[in-house]
Amino acid sequence: GDLAHQMGIKAGEVAMKLLESGMMATVNTMLDYETAVLVADEFGYTVENVAFDISNFYDTSEDAPELLKSRAPVVTVMGHVDHGKTSLLDAIRNANVIGGEAGGITQHIGAYKVRTGDGSEMTFLDTPGHEAFTQLRQRGAKATDIVVLVIAADDGVMPQTVEAINHSRDAGVPIIVAINKVDKDTANPGRIKQALTEYSLIPEEWGGTTLFAEVSAKQGIGVAELLEMIALQAEIEELKANPDRDAQGVIIEAELDVGRGPVATMLVQRGTLRQGDIVVSGQYYGRVRTMYDDQGKTTKEAGPSTPVEITGLGGIPEAGEPFFSVPDEKDAKRITDNVSAQRRKEAMAQRARATTGSLEDISKMIEEGEVKELNVILKGDVQGSVEAVRDAFLKLGNKEVRVNVIRFGVGGITENDVQLAASAESGCVIVGFNVRPDSRAAAVAEANHVKILTHSIIYDAINQINKILESLLSPII
Ligand code: GDP
């Protein structure tokens, strides 16, 4: 209709032309750009695409090989809880405090750089665990070159160990195994190596290619050898980036500091970030006002694989969000305005989709897991109603099926709720009572196929959950 109007032609004629080429259209049909070009051409008009295109500003194409210089590897430490990730990150940091700065007063900025005796550099993301890794990955960021998989020598391959292996494989990131706590009497590194063969992590002495380090994070044993292995692995990977261009990278973490405003830790991945540069990340932009390195010292510039903490952004971007610098502030504004508008639109569409989860989908999901317990995360607008709904849910079911409320509380449905639902071993639905998911939560739910049901009448909420339970008893085919 609009297109016809702009060309001064009856909508019916445009519809006819479209029909001739096999497309049924009414005045309300949305045409994509390519179709609009073709049909307008039939009437002697040209269509110009004025849609915003971020790739005009955010150049993700590869640099010419001759511009590339080696860069430090970026390392993430993963592993099962209590196997010693945090201790190992501390041990590595302490083993490398430069120039008499011992005492652990270095400021925590979410990542740190290590220089080994032989001059190799490596950057560690200082948030152990899988959440950070997956969060960065979810937004498409590849922020890790090497995963150090920590396994306690007195324990074994545990669920999160397997998860870490899977995450690393999915991301195509090589694994170095650090068998930790070898100081313990009960330590049995051989058993760990044996167990890992099942996951195709085979040490060189057994004919494999996986690097293994035996360490004690607590006593600092083997840490230097582990760093050597990381340097070796990095050499194999031939990591390179072009330092001589506008900076690009990824947000490691960001928060609001009462005194300083938004503070973001960024990992520069290529180019060089300088004080005064204009950076864009998601919906926010700003001029880099202050820039600190991982030692808490003011720094003027940061090249590839360097983490820095900056202030000056107009808001708090999400971890995992890419950032890039642009020369012109007007461009920065234009980009962020467009990103905001686009995200609002997507969020609205996703919210509409996420809240119309079909019962069949949910019961199928649970049946696939062969679990007859429906995990529920319950959020509501007031404590009283949340408790009432929860109590009602818990009364549902029978010997075979029941509701398991794994989290409940007052407030909107957040990304954190969705993450929990997504990581629940069997199916999990989120029920919002008089509350809805925020845009981020809706997006993550969509990506992870997490069902969100929203209700404003207690009876309806109970009824729907009851129906899901019933469907578990008599499977829908
Ligand atoms: P995380 O949950 O993987 O981050 O593990 P932590 O670093 O918090 O360590 C869990 C527990 O194991 C703590 O009590 C540490 O003191 C202990 N631990 C860590 N590394 C070692 C080690 O090399 N030897 C011994 N004996 N204990 C360790």
UniProtKB/TrEMBL annotation:
Purpose: One of the essential components for the initiation of protein synthesis. Protects formylmethionyl-tRNA from spontaneous hydrolysis and promotes its binding to the 30S ribosomal subunits. Also involved in the hydrolysis of GTP during the formation of the 70S ribosomal complex.
Family under the similarity heading: Belongs to the TRAFAC class translation factor GTPase superfamily. Classic translation factor GTPase family. IF-2 subfamily.
Signal sequence residues: none
Protein localization: Cytoplasm
Source organism of the structure: Bradymonas sediminis
Domain Tr-type G residues, every copy: 70-240
Record: residues binding GTP: 79-86, 126-130, 180-183
Protein name, UniProt field: Translation initiation factor IF-2
